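Figure 6 in text form: structure in, sequence out.
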């Protein structure tokens, strides 16, 4: 079990209670996801499966993958009829996807690992397919003490540049300032290019 997997396993019940429903996701975020993802999609780092369920409700042929066994078990019980697998995004071997959702699932990845993660996503998505990635925003790429385990903030332009390096082009950006106990939020929808 990886350190990240163990850290989330330790707080799985609390996390599910706090974040485990699409109703707790900001309406602007849901709309962004709906605009850019459909068809055959993988929710990479799906957590308790709430956004996988949301995409399924929109008609997507979606599969959720996550490292944390408790999240996968909860997702299977809460969203019957959707495939959920205990799997790392590093092991993602599918190809020709219409899209990938990586909603805060790369926040704990060291910046040195991000190019490899994004390149794997690009190999999985067909040309013209989409990636929607959610992340914490900062003025520089920097670690901070997340409640679960160390996470990283990214300037949106730096994240967009990393996406471009992996073979994606940004098509929409959503930023929301900190407030109400939430950190500054960023999301980018990007299209896979040839």
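Output sequence:
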């Amino acid at each position: 079990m990886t350190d990240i997997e163990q850290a989330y396993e330790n707080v799985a019940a609390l996390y599910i209670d706090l974040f485990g429903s699409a109703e707790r996701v900001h309406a602007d975020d849901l709309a962004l996801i709906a605009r850019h993802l459909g068809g055959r999609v993988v929710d990479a780092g799906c957590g308790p499966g709430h956004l996988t369920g949301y995409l399924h409700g929109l008609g997507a042929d979606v599969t959720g993958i996550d490292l944390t066994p408790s999240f996968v078990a909860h997702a299977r019980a809460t969203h019957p009829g959707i495939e959920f697998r205990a799997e790392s995004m590093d092991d993602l071997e599918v190809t020709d996807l219409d899209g990938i959702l990586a909603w805060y699932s790369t926040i704990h990845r060291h910046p040195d690992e991000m190019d490899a993660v994004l390149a794997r996503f690009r190999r999985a998505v067909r040309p013209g397919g989409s990636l929607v990635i959610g992340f914490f925003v900062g003025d520089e790429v920097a670690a901070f003490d997340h409640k679960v385990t160390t996470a990283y903030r990214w300037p949106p332009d730096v994240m967009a540049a990393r996406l471009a390096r992996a073979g994606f082009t940004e098509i929409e950006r959503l930023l929301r300032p900190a407030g109400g106990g939430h950190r500054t939020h960023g999301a980018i929808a990007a299209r896979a290019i040839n």
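Caption detail: Residues 111-124 form the longest helix (14 residues).
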